[in-house]
Amino acid sequence: MTEAVCWECGRSTKRDDGLCKRCAKELDAASRSRAPADVCTNCGYHGPGTRAKRGGWRAEAALYLLLVVPGIAYSVWRRTHLPVVCRRCGSPHIVPDDTPEGQRILARVAREDAELGVDDPEE
Question: Which of 33, 45, 83, 102 could form a disulfide with 97 if both were Cys (CB 3.0 to 4.6 A apart)?
């Protein structure tokens, strides 16, 4: 059994059938071989990003109450092409950890943690 992190929901899963046990999305071969990770250029978080909905539920509810067709259009727009954002700060500025920029950010965060005497920034 191999462990992978789902890009859709960000959960770690251990299944041989290649499906996420939380959202049932298919895991590609790359995510099964190595857990994907991103680095936030804003806060330095290292881990999988999460998908964020655009817009707000208040506008969606108002459009449904006033006019149904614009409400449906807004709902479709809000739920399609969801951007990947940082889990910690919500910033859309994240890069893969295996890129040169990702490596520079990881090195900078490790240096800052060593200067502050922080062992694990997630705790």
Answer: 102
- Residue 104 host element (H or E): helix 100-116
Which residue carries 């499906």 as its tokens? 19
Long-range contacts from 53-56, C-beta under 8 angstroms, 24+ separation: 53/78, 53/79, 53/82, 54/78, 54/82, 54/83
- Closest of 85, 83, 84, 86 to residue 43, by C-alpha: 86
pLDDT tens digits for 67-96?
Answer: 888 888 888 888 887 888 888 888 888 888
pLDDT tens for each residue of 29-82: 544 445 568 888 888 888 888 888 778 888 888 888 888 888 888 888 888 878
Q: Which residues pair with 3 in a beta bridge?
A: 14
Q: Rounded distance, CA 113 to CA 101, Å?
A: 18
Q: Cα–Cα distance between 21 and 19 in angstroms, integer? A: 6
